[in-house]
Design brief:
alpha+beta; six-stranded antiparallel β-sheet; 6 strands
């Protein structure tokens, strides 16, 4: 069992407060939800997660689909408070340095295009996010992380999405040119 790091509740409360504001202000919530729908493209999920792994200085990444569950794992740096807070934001990121690719805080959220719940497990975190409140983390004791890898798991919504993901993975295997644009991921 992993225990929540001291910053978890602070970040969760900040996100919950933001959702309370959105629930009470439809004019503010409308653009958020529209933008969230626009970034949901299953075709981009693997490249977005690879970019995040690269920003975490991962050398290795693995992708699999097993029993209608999409799994992405990497051996990069674990989440610190700033990283986790950035993951729990939308339209804002702590990635401001020029050497990082993602800086809008949207890449991870693209995984909601394949399923309604994303599980994140790392050496210090065990959380899930639901699409209804896609930036609000929920602590879970479901999985004890093994080793130093970080994993993202999403139960795939339907057969159509699963077929599309498998096709995209095959295309990526045949033409791994996108890896040339990554700084640290090599496998």
């Amino acid at each position: 069992m992993t225990y929540a790091p001291e910053y978890f509740e602070r970040v969760r409360q900040k996100s919950a407060k933001r959702w309370h504001q959105l629930d009470n202000d439809p004019e503010l919530a409308g653009p958020w939800h529209q933008l969230f729908k626009q970034i949901q493209r299953p075709r981009h999920v693997v490249s977005e997660l690879l970019q995040n792994a690269d920003d975490a200085d991962a050398k290795n990444a693995r992708v699999s689909i097993d029993n209608s569950t999409f799994v992405f794992e990497h051996d990069g740096r674990d989440f610190g408070e700033s990283d986790f807070e950035s993951l729990c934001n939308f339209g804002y990121s702590n990635k401001r340095a020029l050497h990082t690719i993602g800086f809008r805080g949207m890449g991870f959220k693209s995984a909601f295009s394949i399923g309604d719940t994303i599980e994140l497990h790392s050496p210090t975190l065990s959380v899930k996010f639901h699409s209804e409140r896609f930036t609000e983390p929920i602590w879970t004791d479901d999985v004890t992380p093994i080793g130093s890898w970080t994993s993202f798991r999403v139960h795939i919504r339907d057969e159509y999405v699963e077929r599309g993901l498998k096709k995209n993975l095959q295309e990526g295997i045949r033409s791994p040119a996108s890896l040339l644009f990554l700084r640290s991921v090599r496998n």
